[in-house]
Amino acid sequence: MKSLLFYLLLLSFVPSALSLEPYFLSTPALSSDGKTVVFSFESDLWKADVVSGTATRLTAMQGYETNARISPDGQWIAFTGRQFGNADVFVIPMEGGEIRQLTWHAANDDVENWSWDSKSIYFTSNRLNSGTVYKIPVGGDNPVRLFEHYFNTIHNLAENPKTGELFFNDTWESQSMASRKRYKGDYNPDIQSYNPKTGEYKKYTEWIGKDMWATIDQNGMVYFVSDEKNGEYNLGKLENGKTKNLTNFKTSIKRPIVSADGSKVVFEKDYQLFTYEPATDKTSKLSIRIVRNSLLPKEQNFSIAGKISDFDVSPDNKKIAFISRGELFVSDIEGKYIVQMHPVETHNYASPNEVQDKRFERIMSVKWLSDNKTLLYNQTWNGYLSWFTLPVPAWPNRTRCGAATGSTSISPPTALNRPILQAAEALIFTGLRWIKPILHSVRMNSISCGKKIPQQSKRTLSHPSPSIPTASGNGSN
To answer: How confident is the model at residue 204 (pLDDT cuts 50, 70, 90)?
Structure first.
């Protein structure tokens, strides 16, 4: 029987909501007064108070929602939604409510920004070429193309309310290759502008590296990202026509957005959200707290057929460690006894809350050390893939149902090499023929022998259950 029984506890059954500080928050935007932030997390849009950090879910669509932009009047949130596979432009009231779809083209339409009168939304689209900028009224209508030339790729657009200039980037290094740091060459992005009223073009930066992601407040102050300072993306601004560096982070920031009143700039850094206050030159991490409703416990069977992602045999040829679905297991070489390891609970710098939050981060690979008692493995911790060691308890000799036995008979190492290779082939290519005795052992140990899988081995999953309307709309954009 090729299935391994994992008991899944979705969330602790408590009457109050569960609040955790999350990672992998992206594409943030600020309200005009800088007091509210909207961002993407778990494929949905969330809204949080900047001071308290308490976040609530705004959307629960079938696809995933990104690129939230709040209108200058504070009434609307425009965002990119992929409810039907490709990207389209959607709007939702700032306080939540009915979602309306504004574009319906088969191409990808990605939200960029708002006009300062809050009547139009700027978006990029590849409906005619590799990509340029359009605008569409918030009430819906046919989009209007802003740049008539064909070849350049216009994106990262922001309107200057004082001059009417449209700031932009136009190379793939700031679009599809924005995450590639330290590029220097002919396709480096610069901060540029075009004034549709006067036809005037300007180029504000000349750095051979990357200058991109311009964002502008109501006073016309232009902030942007540059890697000129130290090779990492840092925040800068244009002051009297010259560039000025504002931060000196050793890890890069992404996608800054300034509030309309200019009081704060929000950006991504280290998979979380930070703000920069120009008046005080101070940077702070937003302590976002995701609030979810508690759910009832649920158990679920998972098949691991063909899902052994990594394994290693101990140097003494008596034990095998393997990974399935991100979980770590250790077995004797004959597959008569198996135990699931819980390595995060042994991290000596993990607080009780961190143990609860991080217990089920995915483990990627495992290796035995030469002492036959220690495992080396890598696992995501606080947003980064890191290496850890884990001591393996003294290995008992047991029958399939856990009764003590005599010594286990192991073939000499030289005779064991070929069977191990055959086992590897079976694990990876033939859908777990070799591991079948181990799977049977798990079933026997957990059911026939009356043993239950420990409470801490239950995985935690969560699924949104808010009553949030899906998108609606009509048209042929």
So the answer is: very high
Handedness of CA 146, 151, 155, 157 (dihedral sign): negative
One-letter amino acid identity for 286?
Answer: L
Nearest-CA neighbor of 34 among 78, 63, 72, 3? 72
Co-location of 287 and 343 in the same domain: no
Total structural domains within the chain: 2
- The upper half-sphere exposure of residue 65, i.e. CA atoms within 13 Å in the direction of its Cβ, equals 28
Inside any domain, residue 172: yes
Same domain, 289 and 304: no
CA distance 258 to 303: 47
Q: What is the mean pLDDT of the chain?
A: 78
In this structure, of 50-64, 113-127, 248-262, 393-407, the range with the lowest mean pLDDT score is 393-407
409: number of Cβ within 10 Å:
6
Residues 239 and 310 in one domain: no
What pTM was computed for the model?
0.63
**Cα–Cα distance measured from residue 290 to residue 19, given in angstroms and rounded to the nearest whole number:** 5
Nearest CA-CA partner of 174 in 232, 225, 242: 225
Residues 219 and 82 in one domain: yes
Identify the three-state secondary structure at position 414.
helix
Whether the CB-CB separation of 219 and 232 falls below 8 Å is answered with no
Question: Which tens digit of pLDDT belongs to each residue from 206-240?
Answer: 999 999 999 999 999 999 999 999 999 999 999 98
Token pair of 426 as six digits: 């079976």
Whether 158 maps to a domain, the answer reads yes
Tell me how many helices (H) and strands (E) the chain has. Answer: 3, 36
Q: Are 193 and 157 in contact (CB under 8 A)?
A: no
Digit-coded pLDDT (tens) for 76-87: 999 999 988 899
Per the structure, the complete domain to which residue 38 belongs is given by 16-293
Residue 3 falls within a domain, yes or no? Answer: no
Cα 204 to Cα 174, 242, 419: the distances in Å are 16, 8, 66
How open is the CA angle 218-222-225, to the nearest 5 degrees?
A: 135
Same domain, 196 and 75: yes
- CATH code of 152's domain: 2.120.10.60
256-302 pLDDT per residue, tens: 999 999 999 999 999 999 999 999 999 999 999 998 765 555 566 76
Same domain (yes/no): 222, 361? no
> Is 172 in the same domain as 264?
yes
Residues 276, 417 within the same domain = no
Decide: 468 and 65 in contact? Cβ < 8 Å.
no
- Give the tokens for residue 67: 């690129």
